[in-house]
Amino acid sequence: MRIRHLPDYLVNQIAAGEVIERPAAAIKELVENAIDAKATHIEIDIRNGGKSQIIIRDDGIGMSDEELNAALDRHATSKLPDDDLVNINHLGFRGEALPSIGSISRLKIKSKASDQDNAWEISVHGGMKQDIIPSAQTQGTTIEVKDLFYATPARLKFLKTDRAEYGAIKDTITRIAMAFPAIEFKLSHDGQTKLHLPREQGNLLDQRRERLSSILGKEFGENSFPVNAEREGITISGYASLPTLSRGTTQHQYLFVNGRPVKDRLILGCVRAAYMDVLHHGRHPLVALFIDIPPEQVDVNVHPAKSEVRFRDANLVRGLIITALKHALLQDGQTTSSSLSSQVISKMQPQQYNNSLPMNRGSSPVVPRSYISNNYAPSNHNLAEKSQEFYQPLEPAELQNFQPTARAEEQHSTEKNQYPLGAARAQIHENYIIAQSAQGLVIVDQHAAHERLVYERFKTQMDDGKIESQGLLVPKIIDMDDTRSNLLVEHKDMLENLGLEIEIFGSGSIAVQSIPAIMSGKVNIKELINDIIDEISEHDTAQKLEKSIHEILSTMACHGSVRSGRRMNADEMNALLRQMEETPNAAHCNHGRPTYIKLDLKDIEKLFGRR
C-alpha cells in the first residue's frame, strides 16, 4: 500500500482523539484560552454532562475577524511570538484545541476585540468552516459547542453517564479556579448554577486561601498552614492541611506548575515523604502547591493534554517541596485541627430532661430564671412531688464517697495556667490527662503524646550518628523461624545504629544483647523484635529499608512510650505537658493521630447556658 497524505478533516479528528477525549477536556482547553485572553469573568453552561451543549463566555480581549478565521486553522496561535517552544508563558500554545473541537462537533464562535467596534461570528460543522458574518456580542468571546463527537460516533460509546461527565467537568473547573483566584468562575448544568466562585480580593496569598476554602471547604481554610520556599529561581507556595485533617486517598492533592494544573507522581511522593513522621500509611493530607519555575526549566509539551510536565532538575524540585512542607509542618506542629474540638463540643449536648422534672431541687436554692428553658419547665406537679427525694442535697459525709480515684494534686500557682497546654488537673481512664489552661481545657492522650516525644529523641540521636544503647545483664533469647532470624541478621549493622545489638544463638534463635537506652525497663523485647522484622519484610532491598528507617523508629517509639493504663502523678503529667510544648510536631503522634484536643471555655459555657 502506497503512502498518502490524510485529508485535513481526518487529521483534525485524529488530533481531537489525542486532545479531546471527553467533554471535560474540551472545556479545559476553551477555559484556558479565555484565561490567556485576560478574562476576569468566565461562565460555563453545559447540558447533559457537556455531551449535547457547551457554552463558554468570557470578557477577555476578544478577536478580530481575521484572527477569528485563523483561530480555526491547525497550529495557528498568538502565544508563540518568537517561535520558541522552550519559553512558554501561556496555558495554550499549540493551536490545536479549536480546530480539533470543530472537527467533531457543531462549533460556533462569537467575538469582539477590545479595540474594534464590530463583533464577528463563525461556525464549523464537522470540520467544515463557514463564512464569517457580523454578530451581536459584547467585548470578549462566546464559544458554543453542540453535539460533541457527533462526527465521530464511535467515541460517544466511551463516554460515561451525564452525572459522571459533569463530575469530571466540575473537577476540571475547580482545579483551574484554584490557580486563578482573581478570576470569577460560574458553572451551570442543565439550567442550574452548580458552582459560583467570585473574584477574590487582597494579595495573592489571601486570594488563594479564600479560593481554596471555597472549594475544599471551610474546614481546610481553618486547619491548613501556608507553604513558602524559594531556591535557584524556583518558588514553592500554597497551603497544606494539618496532619489531623487527612483523607483516605490522594485525590485532594493539587499541583500547579506556572498556573497549569498537572498531575505528577513525583509530587505525590514528595508529599508522602514530608508527612511520613506525622501521618500513618493509608492517610493523606489535603495539599495545594503552586510551583513557579523559569519556563526553560520545565517541559509542558510531554503530554497531548498538557496534564503532565517534565522538570529539567527533578531532584531540585523534589528536595525543595519536601523541605518547604517539612519546615511549614515544624512551624505548625503544635496545632491540632480545630474540627476535632468542634466534634467534641457537638457530642457534649445538654441532657434533655423530661418536662415534668422540678426546677426547685429540694431545699437547695431555686434555679435562676435565666437558666430555665422550655425543656426544663415543670408541668406535672404530682410527679414533681414524688421526685423531690431524688434532689435532696447530699451530706458532707456522703460526698466523701464520690471523690475521684485518679486526681492530680491541686495546682495553686496561676503561672502554669499560662502555659499553652496548661496545668494538669486529673488523669481519667488511666490514659487521658485533663489540663486547665487560661483559655479552657486540654485533653491529652498520654500514650500518643509520649510516643511523639520518644520518636523525636530517637531522631535526634540518629542525627548524631547512633542511638544510645544499654546492654542487658542477661541477653534476651528469642526463638523464631530461621528465615526471620536470617532476615534480621542481614541488617545487623543498621540495627546497631538503632541501638539494638543482636547475635545468632543456635538455629532459628537470636540473642538480644542491648536495646536503646531510652527504652530500658519498659519494653517487651520479643514483641519489639517481631514488629521490626515485619517492617523489614515489607521492603525489598536494604536501600528501600534505609529510606524507610523512620518506620522502625516509629515502632520502637511506640514500644518505648508510656502505655495506656499507667497511672501518673501530677508532677509526671506536668512534665509531659512541658516536654510537649518544647517538642516539634508534638500535636500529632507518629501515626497522625492528635495528641491533645483543646476545648475553649466559651464553648463549654455555652453548653451550660452561660453564654
What features would you highlight for this structure?
single chain, 611 residues, alpha+beta, Heat Shock Protein 90, Ribosomal Protein S5, domain 2, 3 domains, five-stranded mixed β-sheet
Helix content: 25-40%
Which structural class matches the secondary elements? Answer: alpha+beta
Low-confidence blocks of residues: 353-413, 540-548
> What coarse outline follows from CA principal-axis ratios?
elongated
Q: What is the CATH superfamily of the largest domain? A: MutL, C-terminal domain, regulatory subdomain
CATH T-level fold name of the largest domain:
Ribosomal Protein S8, Chain: A, domain 1
Tell how many strands the DSSP assignment holds.
25
User: Biggest β-sheet: count, sense, barrel?
Assistant: 9 strands, mixed
Q: What is the radius of gyration computed over CA atoms, rounded to a whole number of angstroms?
A: 33 Å
The overall number of domains is 3
Distance between the termini: 87 Å
What's the CATH class label of the largest domain? Alpha Beta
How does this structure look, described?
The protein has three domains: 8-197, 2-Layer Sandwich (Heat Shock Protein 90), CATH 3.30.565.10; 204-332, Ribosomal Protein S5, domain 2, CATH 3.30.230.10; 404-611, MutL, C-terminal domain, regulatory subdomain (Ribosomal Protein S8, Chain: A, domain 1), CATH 3.30.1370. The protein has 21 helices and 25 strands. Strands 1, 2, 3, 4, 5, 6, 7, 8 and 9 form a nine-stranded mixed β-sheet that branches. The protein has a five-stranded mixed β-sheet with strand order 10-11-16-13-14, sandwiched between helices. With 611 residues, the chain is of the alpha+beta class.
